[in-house]
Amino acid sequence: MDVDMHIHTLESDGTYTPEEIILRAMKNNVIALAITDHDTVAGVKAGKAAAERYGMEFIEGIEISCNEENLEVHVLGYYLNLEDEVFLRELAELEEAREKRNRKIIEKFEKIGIIIDIEELKRFAPGNIISRLHFANYLLEKGIVTNKNEAFTKYLGRTGLTYVPKENFSPERAVKMIKANGGFASLAHPKLITLNDEILNDLIVRLKECGLDALESQYSSFSKVEKQKFRKLAKKYGLLITGGSDFHGDNREGVDIGDAGLEYSQFERIKRFLNK
Question: What is the pTM for the complete model shown?
Answer without folding.
Answer: 0.92
